């Protein structure tokens, strides 16, 4: 009774430390435990996941194996999620085999995570098979399946799923709109966006459903679509109404559109927002100079470019992700000045 009570307290401390972003303290508490149970491992794996320590999630799962601790659905959901975001498709296949071999229960969270994973790696048939076999589905399930179909360019299947949804949230709308946008069906995307506005779906209504947080990419799809279509004011208002702070990519997307459409006033506003986030990045100033040049304001364009020459601002290298023998790597693509 004493040992069991002690493990319960220690597990609670690990969970509390991780929840307060003190993940190193959580790991120390875990390492100092004389006895651990499955809850102990789950607490730390969940803590790593919540704090974005995805490689640590996989490393801890590997540590579990020699201890003869059988992972259950919560553990596997976190592990699959980590693999998916790291792009470790080779490892994911091993995790799926583990689930099947050990008859891990497929609860809704694990099923949703697997559908998302299958969709990202292009295994739409596997995603759909799992989707139809689920005894219960929620919006996360349907949104993941819509996204999987859209990524595979099966827009008809995605739209069928969208139309059959009993209730849609903003993720549903953006997933479908993004599918149309990626397929270059911009008129359909805009029609759906207008329908979304008519139904009074707003950015601050995006739901936190079943432990899945709304992601920046969902808003990115909308900003990209509105920007490409020339709806710059709508894109700007959309960004301002987001429930979290926009990242530099969103401002860059809007600023690039300002350069295309020659919207000087919004370009100046957007550049100021961009500089707050990335003061050492010259790309925003280059784009602003292009806007000035496009609208015939050559003096302002030259002023910006002269300022860039005398500054320490640098272009940001692009990045790509690759996988070699099941291991993910990030590669920088440097822009060389000639």
General description of the model:
This protein has helices spanning 2-19, 23-31, 38-50, 54-64, 73-86, 89-101, 108-120, 124-133, 139-151, 155-164, 170-182, 186-198, 216-228, 232-240, 248-261, 264-277, 283-294, 298-309; strands spanning 318-324, 327-333. With 338 residues, the chain is mainly alpha-helical. The N and C termini lie far apart (73 Å). A two-stranded antiparallel sheet has the order 1-2. It is globular. A hairpin with a 2-residue loop joins strand 1 (318-324) and strand 2 (327-333).
Quick recap:
This protein is mainly alpha-helical. It has helices at 2-19, 23-31, 38-50, 54-64, 73-86, 89-101, 108-120, 124-133, 139-151, 155-164, 170-182, 186-198, 216-228, 232-240, 248-261, 264-277, 283-294, 298-309, and strands at residues 318-324, 327-333.
List the topology elements.
Elements (H helix, E strand, L loop, with lengths): L1 H18 L3 H9 L6 H13 L3 H11 L8 H14 L2 H13 L6 H13 L3 H10 L5 H13 L3 H10 L5 H13 L3 H13 L17 H13 L3 H9 L7 H14 L2 H14 L5 H12 L3 H12 L8 E7 L2 E7 L5
Antiparallel strand pairs: 1-2
Helix pairs in contact: 1-2, 1-3, 2-3, 3-4, 3-5, 4-5, 5-6, 5-7, 7-8, 7-9, 8-9, 9-10, 9-11, 10-11, 11-12, 11-13, 13-14, 13-15, 14-15, 15-16, 15-17, 16-17, 17-18
